Amino acid sequence: MSGLEETIDVDAPARRAYDLWAAFERFGEFVQGVERVQRDGARLHWIAKVGPVTREWDARIVAEEPGRRLAWEAPDGPIDTDITFEALGPARTRVVFRERMHDSLPAQAGAASGYGGRRAREDLERYKALLEQPR
User: Fold this and answer.
1) 3-state DSSP of the chain
2) CATH number for the domain formed by residue range(s) 2-131
3) Domain spans in the chain, listed from the N-terminal domain onward
4) Contact, 73 vs 60, CB < 8 A?
5) Contact of 93 with 68, CB cutoff 8 Å
6) Global pTM?
7) Cβ contacts of residue 125 below 8 Å, gap of 6+?
8) pLDDT one-digit tens code per residue, 81-112
9) Beta bridge partners of 48
């Protein structure tokens, strides 16, 4: 497996930053290509556009520590994901996003082109903008 790591600091408490990531029904608002994520307990069902193709896969939540960490594995999907939230103060948080791409040809091609890192950075920037919007 290959992987990537991206970090972004956000102006929000760690718990609020975590809560937006844990609101899987909102992923389409900041994660490129995601059409829908449905949660049923620890199971996540993903529907996303990967290039011109719509793909569906399941993932399993493997870590859920409110305000600190959220992780899931997708054995039949393209990536596993692990996000940590580090409080830098009462209203500032460092979000560390890690993806482990499975050894599939599309994942390898994306990693070689640098696409995964650019996509992750753009997703994090959209996440930050959504999180920091006045309520």
Assistant:
1) CEEEEEEEEECCCHHHHHHHHHCHHHHHHCCCCEEEEEEECCEEEEEEEECCEEEEEEEEEEEEECCCEEEEECCCCCEEEEEEEEEEECCEEEEEEEEEECCCHHHHHHHHHCHHHHHHHHHHHHHHHHHCCCC
2) 3.30.530.20
3) 2-131
4) yes
5) no
6) 0.86
7) 8
8) 999 999 999 999 999 999 987 665 444 444 44
9) 34, 55
